[in-house]
Amino acid sequence: xxxxHKLFIVALGVTLFACSSKQQTxxxxxxxxxxxxxxxxxxxxxxxxxxxxxxxxDVEIRPNVNGFITKLCVDEGATVRKGQALFMIDxxxxxxxxxxxxxxxxxxxxxxATAQLTADNKRELAKKNIIxxxxxxxxxxxxxxxxxxxxxxxxxxxxxxxxxSYTKVESPSDGVVGTIPFRVGALVGPTIATPLxxxxxxxxxxxxxxxxxxxxLDLIRQDGSSKEILQKLPExxxxxxxxxxxxxxGKIETISGVIDQTTxxxxxxxAFHNPRYLLRSGGTGSIRMPSVINDALLIPQKASYELQDKxxxxxxxxxxxxxxxxxxxxxxxxxxxxxxxxxxxxxDRVVVxxxxxxxxxxxxxxxxxxxxxxxxxxxTQTKGEADKK
Length: 389
Description:
Blueprint: H1 2-25, E1 31-37, E2 41-61, E3 67-72, E4 79-80, E5 85-89, H2 92-127, H3 133-165, E6 168-170, E7 175-177, E8 187-188, E9 197-212, H4 213-223, H5 226-232, E10 237-240, E11 251-255, E12 265-273, E13 284-300, E14 305-307, E15 310-316, E16 322-329, E17 337-342, E18 349-351, E19 364-367, H6 369-388
Parallel strand pairs: 1-19
Antiparallel strand pairs: 1-18, 2-9, 2-13, 3-5, 3-8, 4-7, 5-6, 7-9, 9-12, 10-13, 11-12, 13-17, 14-15, 15-16, 16-17
């Protein structure tokens, strides 16, 4: 019985092989190969550029006065509003300076009032020729001097009050607090090398990437001046460091007018809205810029083969023979297809399967890729059933 089963399986294998050979050879002994007819279509391809992410503005927070930090009002990573307190610096000496300046203003006001009375009195006496013009002029000069002293004292008071206000370090904008290297008790001042912290405005993010000089020239030739380029460029996408796609699309806002001589690249900036604060300043990712090609001729990459750094395809002729044809392709691709820029024309019929086994001038029987896939599926199913038996 076992021997009968073995003989049956062998016989079935021979039958499948014969059927497979028949499907491949088709009618008249010509082998069957999947062929497509080229039809112009619009294609969207994407170019990827490494990118760095920055907040719309990253403001370094530095103290305007010297003193010891007495309080930290926020923690690292906190979201703050414009005018919100970040740090408190010991205000005692600045409060005393305000008191001294205010007292000096009061003294100066009294001196002005006294000088005003004296000057008024001298004017009345001068009208009656009781005193000389010299005495009157001296009184006027004293009054002017006291008024100048009052203005100086008031300016010193304003300066003292401003210094006192600086002891409360406030956020200059909405944003997110960065690292805080100084803690309570640290002595800080305007000359410290390290800022107290950095507040990043991340409501909108700037994503910077570089474009080669050749790529920039291609854009200029295609779309005109830099201003026209910015208007015509499509929205771009941002791929985050974990490979996920950022949900908001961005718009390219600026292209640097200077090419970096060391890298031969030009800096480009795209803006992305950041409503949920998913993006953070200092992050990395990559920009995907789509390129739309109209009336493109698209072929599967597997339909081509390389010979001496040149790409070729097999084009079906009217007499069912094939001819190897050199092609040029666009410098971008989607990983599956090529956009042919020269060598082929609309209506050409290109072999898309088994090109490695073909030779120039071979006669074939063309079938559609769908027919080829259906036959392969049927053969696989038949073989699977045979294996089970």
